Amino acid sequence: MGSAPIPSETYKLGFIGAGKMAESIARGVIKSGILPASRIKTAHKGSRRTTFESFGVGVVEHNNQVVENSDVVIFSVKPQVVKDAILQLRPILSEKKLLVSVVAGVKLKDLQEWAGHDRFIRVMPNTPAAVGEGASVMSLGAGATQEDGEIIAKLFGAVGKIWKADEKLFDAVTGLSGSGPAYIFLAIEALADGAVAAGLPRELALGLASQTVLGAASMASHAGKHPGQLKDDVTSPGGTTIAGVHELEKSGFRGILMNAVVAAAKRSRELSQNN
Protein backbone atom coordinates (compact mmCIF):
# COMPACT_ATOMS: atom_id res chain seq x y z
CA MET A 1 0.00 0.00 0.00
CA GLY A 2 1.00 3.64 0.33
CA SER A 3 0.98 5.77 -2.76
CA ALA A 4 4.15 7.30 -4.14
CA PRO A 5 4.14 11.10 -4.07
CA ILE A 6 3.31 12.88 -7.32
CA PRO A 7 6.42 14.76 -8.52
CA SER A 8 5.03 18.28 -8.15
CA GLU A 9 7.63 19.84 -10.47
CA THR A 10 7.42 17.38 -13.35
CA TYR A 11 4.09 15.55 -13.20
CA LYS A 12 1.95 15.01 -16.29
CA LEU A 13 -1.76 15.82 -16.40
CA GLY A 14 -4.40 13.97 -18.41
CA PHE A 15 -8.07 14.69 -19.10
CA ILE A 16 -10.60 11.95 -19.75
CA GLY A 17 -13.25 13.96 -21.57
CA ALA A 18 -12.37 16.92 -23.78
CA GLY A 19 -15.30 19.19 -22.97
CA LYS A 20 -15.52 22.83 -21.95
CA MET A 21 -14.48 22.28 -18.31
CA ALA A 22 -11.36 20.33 -19.34
CA GLU A 23 -10.54 23.09 -21.81
CA SER A 24 -10.99 25.85 -19.19
CA ILE A 25 -8.74 24.08 -16.67
CA ALA A 26 -6.08 23.26 -19.28
CA ARG A 27 -6.02 26.85 -20.59
CA GLY A 28 -5.85 28.30 -17.07
CA VAL A 29 -3.06 25.97 -15.98
CA ILE A 30 -0.95 26.79 -19.06
CA LYS A 31 -1.66 30.53 -18.90
CA SER A 32 -0.66 30.78 -15.24
CA GLY A 33 2.53 28.81 -15.87
CA ILE A 34 1.64 25.93 -13.52
CA LEU A 35 2.25 23.37 -16.28
CA PRO A 36 3.53 23.66 -19.83
CA ALA A 37 1.14 22.44 -22.53
CA SER A 38 3.64 19.68 -23.38
CA ARG A 39 2.79 17.93 -20.08
CA ILE A 40 -0.98 17.87 -20.69
CA LYS A 41 -2.92 15.32 -22.73
CA THR A 42 -6.47 14.40 -23.65
CA ALA A 43 -8.12 12.07 -26.15
CA HIS A 44 -10.60 12.97 -28.88
CA LYS A 45 -11.29 11.98 -32.44
CA GLY A 46 -13.50 14.88 -33.52
CA SER A 47 -13.61 18.68 -33.60
CA ARG A 48 -12.38 19.17 -30.03
CA ARG A 49 -9.00 17.85 -31.15
CA THR A 50 -8.29 21.08 -33.06
CA THR A 51 -9.36 23.23 -30.09
CA PHE A 52 -6.93 21.55 -27.68
CA GLU A 53 -4.10 21.40 -30.22
CA SER A 54 -4.53 25.13 -30.89
CA PHE A 55 -3.11 25.92 -27.44
CA GLY A 56 -0.50 23.16 -27.41
CA VAL A 57 -2.19 20.25 -25.63
CA GLY A 58 -1.36 16.79 -27.04
CA VAL A 59 -4.42 14.93 -28.28
CA VAL A 60 -4.24 11.13 -28.59
CA GLU A 61 -6.68 8.55 -29.98
CA HIS A 62 -7.64 6.62 -26.85
CA ASN A 63 -8.27 7.29 -23.17
CA ASN A 64 -5.87 4.53 -22.11
CA GLN A 65 -3.00 6.43 -23.80
CA VAL A 66 -3.93 9.47 -21.70
CA VAL A 67 -3.84 7.46 -18.46
CA GLU A 68 -0.58 5.70 -19.32
CA ASN A 69 1.06 9.08 -19.94
CA SER A 70 -0.28 10.87 -16.85
CA ASP A 71 0.40 11.09 -13.11
CA VAL A 72 -2.79 13.06 -12.44
CA VAL A 73 -5.95 12.07 -14.31
CA ILE A 74 -9.02 14.33 -14.32
CA PHE A 75 -12.34 12.75 -15.28
CA SER A 76 -14.40 15.48 -16.93
CA VAL A 77 -17.08 13.46 -18.70
CA LYS A 78 -20.88 13.49 -18.49
CA PRO A 79 -22.37 11.85 -15.34
CA GLN A 80 -24.04 9.07 -17.31
CA VAL A 81 -20.76 7.85 -18.85
CA VAL A 82 -18.32 8.25 -15.95
CA LYS A 83 -18.88 4.73 -14.58
CA ASP A 84 -18.10 3.07 -17.93
CA ALA A 85 -15.12 5.36 -18.51
CA ILE A 86 -13.55 4.45 -15.15
CA LEU A 87 -14.35 0.73 -15.39
CA GLN A 88 -12.79 0.49 -18.86
CA LEU A 89 -9.60 2.10 -17.59
CA ARG A 90 -9.55 0.33 -14.23
CA PRO A 91 -6.70 -2.09 -15.10
CA ILE A 92 -4.32 0.86 -15.58
CA LEU A 93 -5.63 3.18 -12.83
CA SER A 94 -2.94 2.22 -10.33
CA GLU A 95 -2.54 3.88 -6.94
CA LYS A 96 0.55 5.62 -8.33
CA LYS A 97 -1.90 7.87 -10.15
CA LEU A 98 -3.92 10.61 -8.48
CA LEU A 99 -7.49 10.52 -9.83
CA VAL A 100 -9.78 13.53 -9.87
CA SER A 101 -13.44 13.86 -10.80
CA VAL A 102 -15.26 17.08 -11.74
CA VAL A 103 -18.40 15.09 -12.59
CA ALA A 104 -21.54 16.53 -10.98
CA GLY A 105 -23.51 14.36 -8.57
CA VAL A 106 -21.21 11.32 -8.54
CA LYS A 107 -19.99 10.37 -5.08
CA LEU A 108 -16.44 9.53 -4.00
CA LYS A 109 -17.45 6.11 -2.70
CA ASP A 110 -18.71 5.12 -6.16
CA LEU A 111 -15.74 6.66 -7.96
CA GLN A 112 -13.35 4.80 -5.64
CA GLU A 113 -15.21 1.52 -6.01
CA TRP A 114 -15.10 1.70 -9.83
CA ALA A 115 -11.41 2.69 -9.86
CA GLY A 116 -10.40 0.03 -7.33
CA HIS A 117 -8.61 2.47 -5.01
CA ASP A 118 -9.28 5.60 -2.97
CA ARG A 119 -6.54 7.98 -4.11
CA PHE A 120 -9.32 10.11 -5.52
CA ILE A 121 -10.31 13.76 -5.16
CA ARG A 122 -13.74 15.06 -6.07
CA VAL A 123 -13.96 18.68 -7.23
CA MET A 124 -17.09 20.69 -7.82
CA PRO A 125 -16.14 23.59 -10.14
CA ASN A 126 -18.50 26.04 -11.83
CA THR A 127 -18.73 27.60 -15.30
CA PRO A 128 -17.01 30.96 -14.55
CA ALA A 129 -13.82 28.86 -14.51
CA ALA A 130 -13.95 29.57 -18.26
CA VAL A 131 -13.00 33.20 -17.55
CA GLY A 132 -10.63 32.42 -14.67
CA GLU A 133 -13.20 33.25 -11.96
CA GLY A 134 -14.37 29.79 -10.98
CA ALA A 135 -15.53 28.85 -7.49
CA SER A 136 -14.46 25.25 -6.84
CA VAL A 137 -14.79 23.04 -3.78
CA MET A 138 -12.83 19.82 -3.29
CA SER A 139 -13.16 16.78 -1.08
CA LEU A 140 -10.35 14.27 -0.62
CA GLY A 141 -10.83 10.49 -0.75
CA ALA A 142 -9.24 8.42 2.02
CA GLY A 143 -6.14 7.58 -0.04
CA ALA A 144 -5.42 11.13 -1.21
CA THR A 145 -2.58 12.77 0.69
CA GLN A 146 -2.30 16.37 1.80
CA GLU A 147 0.28 16.86 -0.98
CA ASP A 148 -2.22 15.48 -3.51
CA GLY A 149 -4.71 18.06 -2.22
CA GLU A 150 -2.17 20.84 -2.66
CA ILE A 151 -1.48 19.83 -6.28
CA ILE A 152 -5.21 19.94 -7.06
CA ALA A 153 -5.72 23.22 -5.18
CA LYS A 154 -2.99 24.73 -7.35
CA LEU A 155 -4.51 23.40 -10.58
CA PHE A 156 -7.99 24.70 -9.83
CA GLY A 157 -6.55 27.88 -8.33
CA ALA A 158 -5.44 28.63 -11.90
CA VAL A 159 -9.10 29.12 -12.89
CA GLY A 160 -10.46 30.90 -9.81
CA LYS A 161 -10.70 30.14 -6.09
CA ILE A 162 -10.90 26.74 -4.43
CA TRP A 163 -12.09 25.66 -0.99
CA LYS A 164 -11.89 22.31 0.82
CA ALA A 165 -15.06 20.83 2.34
CA ASP A 166 -16.61 17.58 3.44
CA GLU A 167 -18.34 15.80 0.57
CA LYS A 168 -21.66 15.76 2.44
CA LEU A 169 -21.83 19.53 1.83
CA PHE A 170 -21.65 19.16 -1.97
CA ASP A 171 -25.41 19.33 -2.59
CA ALA A 172 -25.50 22.73 -0.87
CA VAL A 173 -22.36 23.76 -2.79
CA THR A 174 -24.16 22.79 -6.01
CA GLY A 175 -27.18 24.90 -5.03
CA LEU A 176 -24.97 27.93 -4.44
CA SER A 177 -21.88 28.01 -6.68
CA GLY A 178 -22.90 25.32 -9.17
CA SER A 179 -26.30 26.80 -10.04
CA GLY A 180 -25.68 30.33 -8.73
CA PRO A 181 -24.24 31.81 -11.94
CA ALA A 182 -27.68 31.37 -13.54
CA TYR A 183 -29.34 33.34 -10.73
CA ILE A 184 -26.88 36.17 -11.29
CA PHE A 185 -27.38 36.11 -15.09
CA LEU A 186 -31.10 36.56 -14.41
CA ALA A 187 -30.32 39.44 -12.03
CA ILE A 188 -28.07 41.13 -14.62
CA GLU A 189 -30.75 40.79 -17.30
CA ALA A 190 -33.42 42.14 -14.94
CA LEU A 191 -31.26 45.09 -13.83
CA ALA A 192 -30.67 45.95 -17.49
CA ASP A 193 -34.40 45.67 -18.22
CA GLY A 194 -35.09 48.07 -15.35
CA ALA A 195 -32.58 50.54 -16.76
CA VAL A 196 -34.17 50.28 -20.23
CA ALA A 197 -37.56 50.95 -18.58
CA ALA A 198 -35.96 54.01 -16.94
CA GLY A 199 -34.73 55.25 -20.35
CA LEU A 200 -31.25 53.77 -21.01
CA PRO A 201 -30.33 52.22 -24.36
CA ARG A 202 -30.07 48.42 -24.15
CA GLU A 203 -26.33 48.11 -24.83
CA LEU A 204 -25.39 50.68 -22.19
CA ALA A 205 -27.85 49.12 -19.72
CA LEU A 206 -26.35 45.63 -20.16
CA GLY A 207 -22.78 46.86 -19.92
CA LEU A 208 -23.49 48.83 -16.75
CA ALA A 209 -25.48 46.00 -15.16
CA SER A 210 -22.72 43.40 -15.77
CA GLN A 211 -19.94 45.68 -14.58
CA THR A 212 -21.93 46.74 -11.51
CA VAL A 213 -22.43 43.11 -10.45
CA LEU A 214 -18.76 42.36 -11.13
CA GLY A 215 -17.66 45.40 -9.10
CA ALA A 216 -19.96 44.60 -6.19
CA ALA A 217 -18.81 40.95 -6.10
CA SER A 218 -15.20 42.09 -6.21
CA MET A 219 -15.76 44.44 -3.27
CA ALA A 220 -17.57 41.72 -1.32
CA SER A 221 -14.69 39.30 -1.83
CA HIS A 222 -11.82 41.76 -1.22
CA ALA A 223 -13.05 44.52 1.10
CA GLY A 224 -12.97 42.40 4.27
CA LYS A 225 -16.33 43.86 5.28
CA HIS A 226 -19.64 42.11 5.82
CA PRO A 227 -21.94 42.60 2.79
CA GLY A 228 -24.50 44.25 5.12
CA GLN A 229 -21.87 46.86 5.99
CA LEU A 230 -21.06 47.45 2.30
CA LYS A 231 -24.79 47.95 1.68
CA ASP A 232 -24.97 50.42 4.59
CA ASP A 233 -21.98 52.34 3.16
CA VAL A 234 -23.88 52.96 -0.08
CA THR A 235 -27.29 53.91 1.37
CA SER A 236 -27.46 57.54 2.42
CA PRO A 237 -30.41 58.98 4.38
CA GLY A 238 -33.49 59.54 2.23
CA GLY A 239 -31.44 58.76 -0.89
CA THR A 240 -31.92 56.80 -4.10
CA THR A 241 -30.34 53.53 -2.94
CA ILE A 242 -32.52 53.08 0.13
CA ALA A 243 -35.58 53.67 -2.06
CA GLY A 244 -34.43 50.79 -4.30
CA VAL A 245 -33.50 48.57 -1.36
CA HIS A 246 -36.94 49.20 0.16
CA GLU A 247 -38.59 47.89 -3.03
CA LEU A 248 -36.40 44.77 -2.96
CA GLU A 249 -37.28 44.10 0.68
CA LYS A 250 -41.02 44.56 -0.02
CA SER A 251 -40.79 41.89 -2.73
CA GLY A 252 -38.95 39.41 -0.52
CA PHE A 253 -35.69 39.60 -2.49
CA ARG A 254 -33.57 37.82 0.14
CA GLY A 255 -36.13 35.09 0.71
CA ILE A 256 -36.36 34.44 -3.03
CA LEU A 257 -32.58 33.96 -3.33
CA MET A 258 -32.49 31.77 -0.22
CA ASN A 259 -35.30 29.63 -1.64
CA ALA A 260 -33.48 29.29 -4.97
CA VAL A 261 -30.31 27.92 -3.31
CA VAL A 262 -32.32 25.56 -1.09
CA ALA A 263 -34.41 24.29 -4.05
CA ALA A 264 -31.32 23.63 -6.18
CA ALA A 265 -29.57 21.87 -3.26
CA LYS A 266 -32.66 19.68 -2.75
CA ARG A 267 -32.72 18.80 -6.45
CA SER A 268 -29.01 17.97 -6.35
CA ARG A 269 -29.65 15.60 -3.45
CA GLU A 270 -32.48 13.87 -5.36
CA LEU A 271 -30.33 13.49 -8.47
CA SER A 272 -27.30 12.08 -6.67
CA GLN A 273 -29.53 9.53 -4.88
CA ASN A 274 -30.80 8.32 -8.25
CA ASN A 275 -27.29 7.74 -9.56
Automatic annotation (TrEMBL):
The residues that the entry says bind NADPH are N63
Looking at the record's lineage, which domain of life comes first? Eukaryota
Cell compartment(s), UniProt? Cytoplasm
Keywords attached to this entry:
Amino-acid biosynthesis, Cytoplasm, NADP, Oxidoreductase, Proline biosynthesis
Q: What is this protein called?
A: Pyrroline-5-carboxylate reductase
Query: What EC number(s) are associated with this protein in UniProt?
Result: 1.5.1.2
GO CC term (a single one): cytoplasm
